[in-house]
């Protein structure tokens, strides 16, 4: 391939009527060669049906489309990224592997839906990333609102996590849930700040949660922990914590 632009664009014309299967061999400044697949060689994964349901507000499984998802396409493993940014001029995936350079993985806009999507071959679970969103007057870096795993504060990036490895242990509770009439069952909802209930000898989340909520063994109580992003009033971060547990899963062994 020949360099056709000083910005770093290389091109080659290959005779033929069909686009063949191909990959790039990239040689860096140190002389090291790497095999790379073209992210733009793949068709969009979010189709017209998904877009129509999303625009109508009835895509109840949209979390399976937006965010980051580890997958294999035509024998090539990688990560599919998708985010809704209707007011953005352009969106890029920036991460450790591309040097946080927004020119490397510029995402594809899917019509007027406001959804940007890109399958990045060769990327794997554990990659730390953000979206570089270009707007009038500049650009901003944003974590993935549909991310499944996040860095521990004060870091704020999203981490690619393969949800297929998540193993749930709430089968019994799920079975009992279908038998319960929630319309006729009493319910009280409380929000408490766990750190305010800390005291000597009570430092773990489970103990603090029990004390704050007044939970005892056998109580018919279900508690949810929602982690704050930076502090007491920085909003909530939903997703997976660095230990692989859902941030909303409060570990109250006897609470229901």
Describe this protein's structure:
The protein is mostly beta strands. Helix content is 9%, strand content 25%. The chain has two domains: 2-164, Sandwich (Immunoglobulin-like), CATH 2.60.40.10; 166-237, no CATH class. The chain has a four-stranded antiparallel β-sheet with strand order 5-6-9-8, with no helix packed on it. Strands 7, 10, 11 and 12 form a four-stranded antiparallel β-sheet that branches. The longest helix has 9 residues, at 205-213.
Task: State the shape.
Answer: elongated
Order of SSEs: EEEEHEEEEEEEEHHEE
Calculate the terminal CA-CA distance, rounded to whole Å. 63 Å
Per CATH, the class of the largest domain reads: Mainly Beta
- Biggest sheet details: 4 strands, antiparallel
Q: Helix segment count?
A: 3
Q: Give the full name of the CATH homologous superfamily of the largest domain.
A: Immunoglobulins
CATH T-level topology of the largest domain: Immunoglobulin-like
Strand content: 25-35%
User: What number of domains?
Assistant: 2
Itemize the secondary structure elements and their pairings.
Elements: E1 2-5, E2 9-11, E3 24-27, E4 33-36, H1 48-55, E5 67-73, E6 76-84, E7 90-95, E8 108-109, E9 115-121, E10 128-135, E11 138-142, E12 158-159, H2 171-177, H3 205-213, E13 227-228, E14 236-237
Antiparallel strand pairs: 1-2, 3-4, 5-6, 6-9, 7-10, 8-9, 10-11, 10-12, 13-14
């Amino acid at each position: 391939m020949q360099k056709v632009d000083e910005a770093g664009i290389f091109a080659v014309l290959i005779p033929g009527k069909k686009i063949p299967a191909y990959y790039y061999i990239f040689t860096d400044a140190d002389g090291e060669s790497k095999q790379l697949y073209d992210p733009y060689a793949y068709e969009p994964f979010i189709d017209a049906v998904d877009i129509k349901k999303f625009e109508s507000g009835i895509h109840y499984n949209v979390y399976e489309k937006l965010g980051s998802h580890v997958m294999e396409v035509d024998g090539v493993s990688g990560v599919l990224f998708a985010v809704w940014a209707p007011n953005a001029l352009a969106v890029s995936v920036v991460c450790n592997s591309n040097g946080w350079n927004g020119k490397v993985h510029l995402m594809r806009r899917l019509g007027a839906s406001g959804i940007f999507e890109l399958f990045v071959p060769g990327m794997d679970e554990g990659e730390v990333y953000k979206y570089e969103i270009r707007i009038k007057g500049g650009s901003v870096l944003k974590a993935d609102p549909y991310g499944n795993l996040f860095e521990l504060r004060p870091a704020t990036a999203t981490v690619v996590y393969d949800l297929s490895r998540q193993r749930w242990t709430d089968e019994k509770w799920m079975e009992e849930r279908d038998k319960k009439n929630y319309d006729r069952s009493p319910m009280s909802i409380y929000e408490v700040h766990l750190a305010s209930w800390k005291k000597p000898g009570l430092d773990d989340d489970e103990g603090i949660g029990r004390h704050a909520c007044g939970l005892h063994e056998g109580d018919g109580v279900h508690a949810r922990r929602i982690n704050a992003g930076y502090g007491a009033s920085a909003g909530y971060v939903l997703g997976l914590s660095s230990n692989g547990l859902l941030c909303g899963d409060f570990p109250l062994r006897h609470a229901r």
